[in-house]
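Consider the tokenized backbone below.
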């Protein structure tokens, strides 16, 4: 009997060992997955739909394994999701816990796995799945807003770069020959643009594209910690990531504390739910401070990525003995602030882009017009 299936492993040797353990003889082993051989990460929209379906089934009385099997054998055309869910089902059958199985699939983000772990620990898996569905529905809408805000500027920027390259390599050099034949002294701005245009000719332009491709490749190959550092420090995107970090932390902590877990265990689970490997060391310091009996708010102050609003709300929760409510309030605040930031970005990006285009066009026009004045002065 021929059996087809997917086994997740970090190497061919590991896959062969797993097949041997199952008393199977491999006929063909083929790598599947995402970019550079890594498992394909599921999109927020896919996660939202998956969490919603799983929540409906579990809420209807089906056990988690049966629910996963129904989704894997359903009519969905998302092969990445089907492969991941089948892998999860196989791991659960071999004794893995639910969070371990989700982690092993390699297709789910840390936040999703963290919330699954929270649900299993607290006995409120159904509620956590509903929270995940709601969260990823919101994240899908937010990402769509950001994409719609950036699509038009991206198209305009591409056309502007193409126009600049065309002007620097063809139009301005043609004018420069006319000006030089007239004996006019070219202004410094025109000479600078001509030098840059000459640099873009031939192999240099290919070199620039190659360097850009190498930079993109290096970024994609960086480890999660380095990528996380870049995300937190980007000029505009950094603020969005920091707001998302604060929201996820407050939201996860409120869910765990309300489920009956201690503050220490809740924050440990909340930190695990965050996809922020750059901050792992600082998270461990906070946990050590709490174990030693220090104030949570004073420990959070040590991490510059937690904003003042979150720290103040935690401090208020400690003083009033109502931490879950304050964490929930902090989550709502950061969610609203993130939505406001995205709306502001959409409002400001077009006028800013218009100004940039105007400055670039003025620079190109002045490079052509200024030599004309020099020629006129010579007559």
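A designed sequence for it:
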């Amino acid at each position: 009997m021929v059996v087809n299936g997917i086994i997740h492993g970090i190497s061919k040797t590991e896959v062969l060992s797993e097949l041997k353990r199952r008393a199977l003889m491999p006929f063909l082993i083929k790598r599947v997955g995402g970019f550079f051989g890594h498992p394909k990460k599921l999109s927020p929209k896919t996660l939202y739909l998956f969490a919603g379906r799983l929540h409906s089934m579990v809420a209807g009385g089906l056990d988690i394994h049966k629910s996963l099997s129904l989704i894997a054998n359903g009519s969905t055309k998302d092969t990445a999701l089907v492969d991941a869910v089948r892998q999860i089902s196989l791991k659960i059958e071999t004794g893995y816990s639910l969070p371990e199985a989700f982690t092993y699939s390699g297709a789910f983000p840390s936040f999703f796995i963290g919330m699954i772990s929270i649900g299993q620990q607290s006995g409120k898996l159904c509620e956590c799945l509903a929270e995940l569905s709601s969260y990823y529905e919101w994240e899908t809408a937010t990402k769509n807003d950001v994409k719609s805000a950036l699509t038009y500027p991206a198209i305009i920027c591409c056309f502007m770069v193409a126009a600049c390259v065309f002007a620097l390599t063809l139009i301005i050099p043609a004018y420069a020959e006319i000006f030089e034949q007239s004996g006019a002294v070219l202004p410094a701005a025109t000479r600078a643009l001509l030098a840059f245009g000459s640099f873009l000719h031939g192999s240099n332009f290919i070199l620039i594209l190659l360097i850009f491709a190498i930079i993109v490749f290096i970024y994609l190959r960086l480890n999660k910690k380095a990528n996380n550092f870049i995300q937190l420090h980007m000029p505009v995107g950094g603020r969005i990531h920091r707001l998302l970090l604060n929201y996820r932390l407050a939201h996860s902590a409120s869910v765990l504390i309300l489920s009956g877990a201690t503050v220490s265990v809740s924050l440990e689970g909340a930190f695990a739910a965050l996809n922020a490997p750059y901050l792992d060391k600082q998270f461990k310091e906070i946990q050590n401070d709490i174990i030693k009996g220090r104030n949570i708010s004073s420990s959070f102050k040590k991490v510059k990525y937690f904003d003042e609003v979150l720290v103040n709300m935690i401090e208020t929760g400690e003083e009033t003995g109502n931490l879950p409510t304050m964490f929930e309030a902090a989550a709502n605040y950061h969610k609203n602030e993130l939505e406001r930031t995205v709306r502001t970005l959409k409002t400001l990006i077009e006028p800013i882009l218009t100004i940039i285009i105007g400055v670039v066009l003025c620079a190109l026009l002045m490079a052509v017009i200024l030599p004309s004045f020099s020629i006129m002065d010579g007559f």
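The two ends are 94 Å apart (CA to CA).
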